[in-house]
TrEMBL record:
Domain of life of the organism encoding this protein: Bacteria
Gene Ontology MF terms: ferric iron binding; oxidoreductase activity, acting on metal ions
Stated family: Belongs to the Dps family.
Domain Ferritin/DPS residues, every copy: 30-165
Protein name (Swiss-Prot/TrEMBL): Ferritin
Organism, as annotated: Intrasporangium oryzae NRRL B-24470
InterPro entries, per the entry: DPS_DNA-bd (IPR002177), DPS_DNA-bd_CS (IPR023188), Ferritin-like (IPR012347), Ferritin-like_SF (IPR009078), Ferritin_DPS_dom (IPR008331)
One Pfam family named in its UniProt record: Ferritin
C-alpha cells in the first residue's frame, strides 16, 4: 500500500472506538432504535395478518405475508446486531415496541385478502418512511450503517410492490 493511505493501527482503533462511543450515546442509537421498533412491529403485524387473512386470494396473500415477516425479522436482527457492534443497546421489548413504533395498530380478527394486502402494504410504507427519514442523520455519523438501511428499503419496497399488486 502507499504510505500516505495507511493509518497506524492505534489510530484506526481510536476512530472505531470514538464512533462506537458516539453511537452508544447519541443520535445514531436513537435513529437505529426507531428503525428497530418499526421492523419488529412490522414483523408482528404481518404475522398477525398472515394468520387472519381470508377470502378468494387467501393463499397468495398468506404466502406474501410470510415474505414480509422474513424481511422484517431479518432486517430487525441486522439493525440490532449493528447497534451492538457500535456498542449501542437495542431495545426490542414489547412495551418499548408498542410505545415507540410509527406503525398504527392492526385490527383484531379475520380480514379479506385484498384489505389485508392494502393494510400491510401501508405498514410497509410507514416502516420504509422511517428508514428514509433517518437516513441522512445515520449517514452523517456512520456511512457503513447507511448501506444497511438502503438494503432494507430495497427489500421492503419489493414486498410492498407485491402486496400492492395483490390488493388490486
Amino acid at each position: 500500500m502507499t504510505a500516505g493511505l495507511t493509518r497506524p493501527r492505534h489510530a484506526t482503533r481510536r476512530l472505531e472506538s470514538d464512533r462506537a462511543r458516539a453511537a452508544a450515546s447519541g443520535g445514531l442509537q436513537a435513529n437505529l432504535q426507531a428503525a428497530l421498533v418499526d421492523l419488529i412491529e412490522l414483523e408482528l403485524q404481518a404475522k398477525h395478518a398472515h394468520w387472519n387473512v381470508v377470502g378468494a386470494d387467501f393463499k397468495a396473500v398468506h404466502e406474501l405475508l410470510d415474505t414480509v415477516v422474513d424481511t422484517a425479522r431479518s432486517g430487525g436482527d441486522t439493525i440490532a446486531e449493528r447497534m451492538r457492534a457500535l456498542q449501542a443497546v437495542p431495545d426490542g421489548r414489547s412495551t418499548t415496541v408498542a410505545s415507540a413504533t410509527h406503525l398504527p395498530p392492526m385490527t383484531a380478527g379475520p380480514a379479506q385478502a385484498g384489505e389485508t394486502a392494502r393494510t400491510v402494504a401501508g405498514r410497509i410504507a410507514t416502516a420504509v418512511g422511517t428508514l428514509r427519514a433517518i437516513r441522512d442523520a445515520v449517514d452523517a455519523e456512520d456511512p457503513s450503517t447507511t448501506d444497511l438501511l438502503h438494503g432494507l428499503v430495497i427489500d421492503l419496497e419489493k414486498d410492498l410492490w407485491m402486496l400492492a399488486a395483490a390488493a388490486q
